[in-house]
């Protein structure tokens, strides 16, 4: 026998299930008023600095079907690359949003400001990106990914450069469709499967 | 961003063996919704080590009392009254204070108040089914609620969910984000449930089963169940010489 480590093991994940919205987005579940104030309704308040953008997309399963019950959360810094709570961060940016696939069409929309670049621990600059976490019925542990932007310089981003199959990098890059408008699909499985992260 | 020592340093890489695999043929919805390619593993950075924080100003008076919150104290929900309580800790066994804990559950008959739930068990007009609270400085939380009913679900021919409460926990970093479920000691449906069985390590599954806690039960009022939650921790050594974000 050896000494015992005094560390604990993380609580195992379980699927968020089809009714995750009851707990996280009561209004979406049809239960408006369950809380006086729902969290994560918008990552920005009026007057946030930077370019306001809209990212739309779908969460697509291995058969090509768009999920109607996916819930997502996003986390990002402000336009200058500062996270909420850091000195000098834009007080109009909470950085956090909850959004869901539409229960009829499967489409989601994230309206936010374009984030600034952030330095990694190594000192390298990371290209602007938004962290996204996806949960749904059938997803046993929340899936982490990132949204990068095609109109930014992504060439030296440490994460994108770690992807061996460079043909998969495009799964993390939002496509610009108009001024301030982007599309970004999250593909759970199959052709063009999104690169999911273990960070 | 927090100045607590425990909030510095990279996140300890996730022990994926502690969690269910993405693909499980007995949980049919996971089959088309599970990635086939490997996850890309990297050391955490600011995007994962920071996260949203919530203060008591978001909470309403009844938010952690599911017996009363749907009617704002006017009429109680039907069901067996229970207290669910415990601590949120990290892998270094330190309490996680001031973090948001959200729960949702079916009513005593096994029916959810959700526009998509069509199970014919009746809705309870006095039960909404969601609650939330913020852990105290010791990582402690508690909810007053009713014991949720088991319910059938379309998977194999006759699958039933054991009694369970869904939990969503934030921690202090976006990389700690976790959703799980609490089960109840003694429920024979736990070990027949394909969703519980996505967790392959029996010891890990047992950490989701809350024991009856008579020391916390209040005579002539409610039973109690204790449910502790462990989030990812952060690596700290005396030789950690790089500052956050540097
Ligand atoms: Fe459930």
TrEMBL record, chain A:
Superkingdom as given in the UniProt entry: Bacteria
Pfam name, any one: Dioxygenase_C
Location of the Intradiol ring-cleavage dioxygenases domain: 46-190
Keywords noted in UniProt: Dioxygenase, Oxidoreductase
Any GO MF annotation of the entry: ferric iron binding
InterPro entries given in the database record: Intradiol_dOase_C, Intradiol_dOase_core, Intradiol_RC_Dioxygenase, Protocat_dOase_a
Stated family: Belongs to the intradiol ring-cleavage dioxygenase family.
Protein's UniProt name: Protocatechuate 3,4-dioxygenase, alpha subunit
Organism of provenance: Pseudooceanicola nitratireducens
Automatic annotation (TrEMBL), chain B:
Alphabetical list of SUPFAM superfamilies matching this protein: Aromatic compound dioxygenase
MF GO annotations: ferric iron binding; protocatechuate 3,4-dioxygenase activity
Gene Ontology biological process terms, A to Z: 3,4-dihydroxybenzoate catabolic process
Keywords tagged on the record: Dioxygenase, Oxidoreductase
Region (Disordered): 1-22
Residues covered by the Intradiol ring-cleavage dioxygenases domain: 50-233
Pfam families per record: Dioxygenase_C (PF00775), PCDO_beta_N (PF12391)
Residues of the Protocatechuate 3,4-dioxygenase beta subunit N-terminal domain: 13-43
Organism superkingdom: Bacteria
InterPro entries: Intradiol_dOase_C (IPR000627), Intradiol_dOase_core (IPR015889), Intradiol_RC_Dioxygenase (IPR050770), PCDO_beta_N (IPR024756), Protocat_dOase_b (IPR012785)
Family: Belongs to the intradiol ring-cleavage dioxygenase family.
Protein name: Protocatechuate 3,4-dioxygenase, beta subunit
Organism: Pseudooceanicola nitratireducens
Taxon lineage: Bacteria, Pseudomonadati, Pseudomonadota, Alphaproteobacteria, Rhodobacterales
